Amino acid sequence: MSKLTVEQVMDLAPVIPVLVVDRVEDALPIARALVAGGLPALEVTLRTPAALDVIREMAKVEGAVVGAGTVLNPAQLDAAMEAGARFIVSPGLTKSLGKAAIAAKIPFLPGTATAGDIMRGMDMGLTHFKFFPAETSGGLPALKALAAPLHTARFCPTGGITPQSAPEWLAQPFIKCVGGSWVVPKGPVDPDKIEALAREAAALPR
Fold this sequence. Notes:
By secondary structure, the chain is α/β, with parallel strands linked by helices. The chain contains 9 helices and 9 strands. It has one domain (6-202): TIM Barrel (Alpha-Beta Barrel). The strands form 3 sheets. The chain has a 4-stranded parallel beta sheet with strand order 3-2-1-9. A 3-stranded parallel beta sheet has the order 6-7-8. Strands 4-5 form a two-stranded parallel ribbon. Helix 6 (115-123) links the parallel strand 6 and strand 7. The radius of gyration is 16 Å and the shape is globular. The two termini are 28 Å apart. This is 2-dehydro-3-deoxy-phosphogluconate aldolase.
């Protein structure tokens, strides 16, 4: 399985679905529907007891590039990689997690919300960041203000992004993609609905 860079992961589609999956049996139908709809990069958040098994199942789907989200520490990083995660997303950036991710040579999107967060990441050699929580951290005006002086950084805003607001975010040159939970609605899994929402998301201009 070829390794991707963090930039290549972000370039796969305009939207990275942010997935909270409670049941392992839902993993394959969700992943197949998302990939069929044109969204191959899948962020499975480590918010449920089933998450690592969900990553293992989704990794079996041809064309899926499965990552782990809500990774908080090096132990979770190791567990996610053992389960087959090909990229790592965290809500924030700590020295221990950053060093572990860099040492593991795995694509890493750490959460940032301030200039200090981004500068600490850049000091570690990181260039691509999650802007989180995007809307409650000041939205697009805040990220524009941060991206101006930190002009070499690239971002994936996540948190409160909607199909309606995504195009405005994606129009910015410093934004590579957005994270979105809307493509997999809460409730019983409906693969046809998920695939349709994924197609709409995959067609967003950037």
